[in-house]
């Protein structure tokens, strides 16, 4: 059952749809490494608080538009 494959019908034809997956990532290790890099003045690929707030606003507006 891994990776997940959906056996279904699409437009009257049998179809097997495979869903991609991401490898497991140790989030704590990634965040710790990003923090240590930031302490050393190195650039980070983790979003800033401002970017996170903007993303949250976008998600909230998507939910609001779906409710209408």
Task: Please provide a brief summary of the model.
The protein has two helices and two strands; from the N terminus they run ββαα.
Based on CA inertia axes, which overall geometry fits?
flat
Indicate the percent of residues in helices: 40-55%
Task: Identify the strand order in the major beta sheet.
Answer: 1-2
Task: Give a quick account of the main beta sheet: strands, pairing sense, barrel closure.
Answer: 2 strands, antiparallel
What are the segments in which pLDDT stays under 50 over at least 5 consecutive residues?
none
- Tell how many strands the DSSP assignment holds: 2
Backbone CA Rg: 20 Å
Global structural class:
alpha+beta
The quaternary structure here is: single chain
How far apart are the first and last residues' alpha carbons, in Å? 37 Å
Number of helices: 2
- What does the average pLDDT come to? 87
Notable features of this structure?
single chain; 68 residues; 2 helices; two-stranded antiparallel ribbon
Structure description:
The longest helix is centred in the last third of the chain and has 19 residues, at 49-67. The radius of gyration is 20 Å and the shape is flat. It has helices at 27-39, 49-67, and strands spanning 5-10, 13-18. The model has no long low-confidence stretch (mean pLDDT 87). It is of the alpha+beta class and 68 residues long. Strands 1-2 form a two-stranded antiparallel sheet. It is built from 2 helices and 2 strands; from the N terminus they run ββαα. The protein has a domain at 43-68. A hairpin with a 2-residue loop joins strand 1 and strand 2 (13-18).
């Amino acid at each position: 059952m891994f990776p997940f494959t959906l056996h279904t019908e699409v437009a009257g034809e049998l179809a097997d749809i495979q869903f991609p997956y991401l490898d497991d990532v140790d989030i704590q290790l990634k965040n710790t490494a990003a923090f240590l890099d930031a302490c050393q003045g190195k650039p980070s690929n983790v979003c800033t608080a401002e970017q996170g707030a903007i993303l949250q606003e976008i998600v909230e507006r998507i939910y609001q538009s779906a409710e209408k």
